[in-house]
Specification:
Helices cover about 45% and strands about 20% of the residues. By secondary structure, it is α/β, with parallel strands linked by helices.
Length: about 725
Amino acid sequence: MADGPMKDPAFQRRLRETFRAEATEHLHEISAGLFALEKSADVEAHAAIIETIFRLTHTLKGAARLVGEEDAEALCQALEHRLGLLKQAKKKVPPGTIAELHAELTRLSAMLNFGEDAIGVVGSKTAPTAVEAAMTVAARGPAGAGLVRVPSARLDALLVHAEELLTAKLTGAQRVAALRAIEEREAVWKKEWARIRKEMVAARRFIDAGLPSPVTRELKALVHFLDWNHEFVERWQDELAQVSRAARQDERRLGTMVDHLLGETKEVLMLPFDSLLEIFPSFVREAALSQGKEIDLVLEGGKTEIDRRVLEEIKDAIVHLVRNAVDHGLGTPAERRAAGKASRGTLTIAVTQKSGGDVEIVVADDGRGVDAAKVTAHARRLKLIGEDVEELSEGDALGLLFESGFSTSSTVTELSGRGLGLAIVREKAEQIGGSVAIESELGRGTTFRLQLPITLARFRGIFVMAQSRPFVIPAAHVRRVIRLDSGRIKRVKNQDTFDFEGASIVLVKLSEILGIPAVGKQMAQSGSVFVVMLSVGRSRVALRVDGVPYEQEIVMKGLGRLLARMRHFMGATIVGGGQIVPVLNATGLVGSAIRRGGARRAQPGRAAPAVARKRKILIAEDSITSRTLIKSILQGAGFEVRTAVDGADALTTLKFEPPDLLISDVQMPRLDGFELTAKIRADKDLSTLPVILITSLASREDKARGVDAGANAYIVKSSFDQSDLLEAIGRLLA
C-alpha cells in the first residue's frame, strides 16, 4: 500500500488482529478438511473437500499479502498449487500426500506464530459439508474462550425476533389489567347483592308462610333462581380469581424472560465507542496536514458501549462534524497566535452515558466560533427568515445552521465542501430518535452535542391523544406532563401562552402541528387541559393534547424508505390488541412548534436546496481482513460502504439496496465474482452497475474472463495500491 490507512500504526494493529482471527479460523477448517480426507473413501467427497481447502488456502494467501506476511503468502501459494494439482487429478488423495499436507499446514501455523493450537484440536471433528464464509461480527468471551463469528445480519434478525416478544409481554400485561378490571366490578355486584338480600329474606318468609297468592309460585321460582345465581356467581368468582392469579404469574415470568432475553441479545450487539473513534486519529492528522494546521485530538469515553446500529447510523454525522471543525472551526497556527491562542488547536470527541437510556456525543473545538449576527444576516439574505421577524436570540440564530443548504462559508474546500451545511447531521440524529444542539462563542470555539438512544427500537414512550387518535412521544424528550387550568392560558399575538417557572411559554396544539382536522364542534375552554413539555437540546416547547392515558415500554418499527423523510414521525408501534400507534419525532415537533410560535418562519414556496448524497459502494469479499482494509480505504475517501460475505449475499443486497458501484473478489463461496458479474449484467435493473474485480488471479486468461463477464475494472492484489482503486472508482462514478 502506498499510503492511507496502512500508515496508521493503530489501524495496522487492528488489521493484524483481524488477520490473526481469520487465519486461525481458516487453519482450523483446513485441518478439519485434511482429517476428513483421511476418513473418507469416496472420490467425489475427496474432490469436494479439496475444493473447499483450496478456496480457504487462496483466501488465506490474499489476507497474508495484505498484512505483509510474505513468507506465509509464499507457503500458501505453494500449498495452493499442490491442491490445484490434486483437483485436476480427480482421484482419492493418498495417505502419504495427506500427511505431507498436514506437515505443510503445521509449518504454516508455526510461521504465523500460532503454534499447533490453531490446527491440532480438530482431530475428533468431521469436516463441514460447507465452510462458513468470513463473518462480519465477532464476540470474544473470557480469556481462552476463543472467538465466535456470527453474521451481523443474523444477529440483527435475532434481536428483531426478541423484540417482537416485547409486544407479547405488553399484551399479557393488558390482559392482566382487563382481568383486574373485571375483578373490580365484582365489588359492585357484591354491593348490589348485599342490598337485595333484605328483600330476599322477606320474600322467603312470605313463601314459607304458605299464604295464598296468585304470584306465590312465580315468586318461589324467582327466589330459587336468585339462590342458584348467587352460588353460580361465587363459583365463577373463585375460578376468575384462579385464572387471574395464574395470568399474573405468567405475566411476571414472561416479562422476566423477555427482559433477560432482550438484554442479553442487545449485549451481543453493543460495541464500544472506540470502534468508531479509531478512524479519527489518522483522519484528523492527515486532514490537518492538508490544511497546514496543527491539531491535538482528544478522545474520551471510548469504552462506553452503544448499539452497533446506532454507531452505523451516526458515524457519517460525526465524520461531518469533525471535517467541518478541521476545515472551518480551527485556524492555522499563525491565525491562532494572532488571536492570542496556542498554535496547536484542540479537537475533542467525547461520549457520556446519560440517564434514561441516552448517550451524549460531544464534538468540540477551541477555534474561531460562530458569529450569530453573521448567521442571522446570511439567513435573511437566503430568505430563511422574513424581514418582519425580530432579532433572533443567539440560540435560535445558531439553530439556523441546521437548515438544509445553509452555509456561511464563501469558499469551497476539498475537505468539507460547501452547501451541505449541518442538515445532514440533524437528519441522521432525528432518524434514530435523537437530537443535535450547538453552542458557540465567537473567538473561543464551538461545541456540538448529539443526544442519541443507546439502543434502537425499544424505549419508554408517553401515549398521548389528539382528536381521539393515539400517538407515542419518546419519554426521553418529555420534560414534564402537567394538567393546566384553562384560565391560565392567555392569547398573545394570536397565540396561546401560559406562565411556567417564571417564563412565558407558547402553547401549540399537537393536532394542529400534525394537521389533524377537528372532530365535531369545538367546545369552549373550561376546566383543565393536558400539556406535554418537550425538551430537545436547549429548545423547550409545550404541546396541548387531549389526554395522556399512560406510559409504557414500546418496540418501534421503522416506516420504510418511502416514508422515511416524514418530519413528524419516526416509526410506529403495535400495542396490545394489534392497534398500530405512530411514534412521533420530538425534534420535528419542537421545530414545528417554534415556527408556529413565530420564532422564525420559512418563506412559502421556497424550495429547499438539494442535499448531496454520499455515493454508496458494496464490497463482496469472503476474507474479513481484505474486507476490513478495503472498507477503511473507501470510508476514508468519503464513501458510504456496505459489505457482503460472498457473491450470493452481495446479489441479495443488490436487489434490495442497489449501490452506486460494486467491488468484488473473484474466488468466493456459493457465487464467485465472475458469476456475480454475469448475473448483474443479465439483470435489467442492475445491468449498468459499475463492477470492479479485485483478485489474486493475475493470469491473462483470468483477466479476459473478467472482461467477458462484464467487469469495468480488474485489479490484481499483488500490485494493489489504494490510489489505483480510488482512481478507478472516481472514473466509473464520474
